[in-house]
Design a protein that fits this description.
Distance between the termini: 21 Å
Number of helices: 10
Shape: globular
Low-confidence stretches: none
Strand content: 15-25%
Largest sheet: 8 strands, antiparallel
Length: 279
C-alpha cells in the first residue's frame, strides 16, 4: 500500500488504526514479519496475499487476522477502501476474555486454518459503526481513552468471531476437541517436543488413537502436523534472522544440524541455505 494514501490514528504505540481510501496497484510487496497483532479489513478491493508462505486470493469484503511472528507479503492488490488495526499483546491479550475472543482463540495464533472471514451486509454495518466510533475516540483524547479504545477493539473482535462461527460452524465432538487440544499443545511445544508419542501422552491417548481421530476430522497425520509447524518456524527464522542453520536447528530442538538440514530439505524441497538465498 502506498504510504502517502494511508491515514493512521495511534495511541501510545500500543494500538493503531489505519484507513486506506484509494484505488491503485500495490507498490510494496516485500515480505514482512509481523511484530504485533493485526486485523485487516479489505472492505472494497481484491488481491492475493501470501501468509506464512501460502497464497490466498480474495475479492471484495473480507477480514483477515495475523499474529506476531507470521510472515505476510502482497502478491497483488487493488484496494479502494480498507482498514488495518494493529495492537501489541499488552494492550489486549493480557485481559481476561472468553476463550473464543482471546489472542489464542479462533481468530489469532492459528496457523492451521484459512485466516479470512467474510462479513455479510448486516455485519459490515456493525463493523463500520465500531470503526467510526474508534476514529472519533482516537480524535477525542478524553478521559479513560485507553479503556474506551480497548472496549471498541473487543467489540470488533467479538463480532468477527461471531461472523466466523456463523460461516464456519465449529464442531464440538470428541475428535474436533482433541484436534484443537493437539494443535494448541504443538504451538506451545514444537521447539522441544517432536514425536507424536510425546503429545499423545500429554493428551492421555495412544499415538494410534490420535492418528485415527485425525483421520476422522480429515486432517493431516499428527506427525506431518508437527513437522509442518517446525518447518514453518524454520522458514521464518531463515528469512528474518541472521542466525546460522546450526543455531536455528538448535533453537528448534535439533542437536544435529546435519539431520535438521535433511529434515528441512525433505519437507521444503530445498536446503535451508537455498531457501534463505531465494528470499
Amino acid at each position: 500500500m502506498a504510504v502517502q494514501d494511508v491515514t493512521t490514528y495511534t495511541f501510545e504505540d500500543v494500538f493503531s488504526l489505519s484507513v486506506v481510501q484509494f484505488e491503485k496497484a500495490c507498490i510494496v510487496n516485500k515480505p514482512e514479519q509481523m511484530d504485533a497483532y493485526g486485523i485487516y479489513w479489505i472492505k472494497e478491493g481484491k488481491g492475493t496475499y501470501n501468509i506464512d508462505f501460502k497464497s490466498y486470493s480474495f475479492d471484495e469484503n473480507v477480514l483477515f487476522f495475523l499474529s506476531p511472528g507470521q510472515v505476510f507479503s502482497v502478491d497483488s492488490e487493488k484496494i479502494k477502501k480498507a482498514y488495518k488495526l494493529t495492537f501489541v499483546r499488552d494492550f489486549y491479550c493480557i485481559q481476561t476474555h472468553d476463550k473464543a475472543v482471546a489472542c489464542n482463540g479462533v481468530l489469532f495464533n492459528n496457523v492451521y486454518e484459512t485466516p479470512f472471514v467474510k462479513p455479510c451486509e448486516n455485519d459490515t454495518k456493525k463493523l463500520s459503526f465500531i470503526l467510526e466510533s474508534l476514529m472519533d475516540e482516537f480524535k477525542a483524547s478524553d478521559t479513560a481513552q485507553y479503556d474506551m479504545l480497548q472496549a471498541y477493539l473487543k467489540q470488533f473482535i467479538i463480532h468477527s468471531v461471531r461472523i466466523k462461527k456463523e460461516n464456519h460452524p465449529m464442531k464440538d465432538d470428541i475428535e474436533s476437541r482433541l484436534f484443537k487440544d493437539f494443535s494448541v499443545l504443538v504451538e506451545q511445544n514444537y521447539k522441544s517436543l517432536h514425536s507424536v508419542t510425546d503429545y499423545a501422552n500429554r493428551l492421555g491417548v495412544s499415538p494410534k488413537s490420535l492418528t485415527k481421530n485425525f483421520q476422522k476430522v480429515g486432517a493431516q497425520t499428527p506427525s506431518d502436523f508437527i513437522k509442518n509447524r517446525i518447518v514453518l518456524e524454520a522458514k521464518r527464522q531463515l528469512i528474518y534472522t541472521d542466525e546460522s542453520v546450526k543455531q536455528i536447528a538448535y533453537g528448534l530442538g535439533f542437536n544435529d544440524s546435519a539431520y535438521f538440514s535433511r529434515f528441512f530439505t525433505k519437507a521444503a524441497l530445498k536446503s535451508p541455505l537455498q531457501f534463505r538465498k531465494e528470499y
